[in-house]
Amino acid sequence: MTASRNGRVPNSTGGPNSTLNPNRAPDPNGALAPTPARLVLPSSGTAGSQVAPSLLTQQLGAPSIEAVVGRPPSLAELVETSGMRRVHVLAWRDLDDPESGGSELHADKVAERWAQAGIDVSLRTAMAPGRPESVQRNGYSVVRKAGRYSVFPRTALSGAMGRTGPWDGLVEIWNGMPFFSPVWARCPRVVFLHHVHAEMWRMVLSPKLARIGETVEFRVAPPMYRRTRILTLSQSSRHEIIDLLGLPPRNITVVPPGIDPAYTPAGERSPHPLVLSVGRLVPVKRFDVLIDALLRARQDHPTMEAVIVGEGYERPELEKKIAAAGAGQWLRLIGRVDDAELLALYRRAWVLTSASAREGWGMTITEAAACGVPSVATRIAGHTDAVIDGETGLLVEPADLGRTLAGVLTDRELHARLAAGALAHAATFTWAETARATFAALVREAARQRRADGSAAGRRR
């Protein structure tokens, strides 16, 4: 998943096919096996964060839980009753990496809440330039070993030799290149796969390396993960994982990302139309396409201003494109910003836009929505869950981005309706629920493994 803030740009639409649509029939292929009732505390006690019960019903097999306690168990209850106290997380990069994105932000938010619930969380990643090998962040530990590519075989080797355990559970974040945990991990585990990388390999790597990446993603890895619980961010990404990787639908569960409670409307909007885009300046984000769209929208709105937040290796070429168009006075690339400045930009913006070619979700879209900002974005997997087309924003083809932006800036009634819808939709997402649902999936895998081990022992006797 590519990420959002400060150049970390995460990754889709609600729409009539969204998993958050309460009128949609549950998808039995997306459900996990029910959590055993013995893992659930009585209904008295902390209710925990319960944002969208229908989501849990459709995606996590919750009916049997709710039949016992009348609600999903809280994270604290799951930790208390599961006996899982030490969890290891494998990721390519961590939040301090200069190329960190939405995947790294997601891991940090979940790990922080698990640590707050009393779980010993260790995150292992590749080394980050200028950063120490180990660090404590938000209650969990980060261990950085090996290089950008060698981290994958070295982590697998360390795990196979038991150098980092024992652990009660393992979370692998499959971000393009997997760690192949099904081959060597013996503890209960789940895998977070934010989205299929597909054409991204050819966007960022040489043809030879791209072919290697595609071969691993589409041919080598899928057979090894066919019996693994896969978590992803959106229903549209789930469909792509099924269609493109051929993984069994019954093993793929949707757990949407949350939104920090700091993202709220406040202050005044910019006096002139302000269009905001946030993301890493890399090919998959298609900022060259976005610049063309902004130039088109500016023709209808001569006072329009635009700000692009983020950093990346495409910045020099994008700056040349802006200069050649004579747009430097109103279209600015401002690089990375801190959270406070990003929040201020969300609150001043009129519209959030994205021309991205591939996302697992689109966290900048829902962060902006929490500040009352509608979005105009490309119709791709991920965006089709972060945006409810026609209700919280508009989804279009890249060629229509500029014209649609101009229309939303012009039609005040449409803008107000989309802004209200965006605010209401964003209220359904919290990091507390994301962390709870992710841990619930890990607890279920632990229960399933115990049952399998018990059956195997019975057969041996």
Automatic annotation (TrEMBL):
<keyword id="KW-0328">Glycosyltransferase</keyword>
<dbReference type="InterPro" id="IPR028098">
    <property type="entry name" value="Glyco_trans_4-like_N"/>
</dbReference>
<dbReference type="Pfam" id="PF13439">
    <property type="entry name" value="Glyco_transf_4"/>
</dbReference>
<dbReference type="Pfam" id="PF00534">
    <property type="entry name" value="Glycos_transf_1"/>
</dbReference>
<feature type="domain" description="Glycosyltransferase subfamily 4-like N-terminal">
    <location>
        <begin position="101"/>
        <end position="262"/>
    </location>
</feature>
<keyword id="KW-0808">Transferase</keyword>
<feature type="compositionally biased region" description="Polar residues">
    <location>
        <begin position="1"/>
        <end position="22"/>
    </location>
</feature>
<feature type="region of interest" description="Disordered">
    <location>
        <begin position="1"/>
        <end position="36"/>
    </location>
</feature>
<feature type="domain" description="Glycosyl transferase family 1">
    <location>
        <begin position="269"/>
        <end position="420"/>
    </location>
</feature>
<dbReference type="InterPro" id="IPR001296">
    <property type="entry name" value="Glyco_trans_1"/>
</dbReference>
<protein>
    <submittedName>
        <fullName>Glycosyltransferase family 4 protein</fullName>
    </submittedName>
</protein>
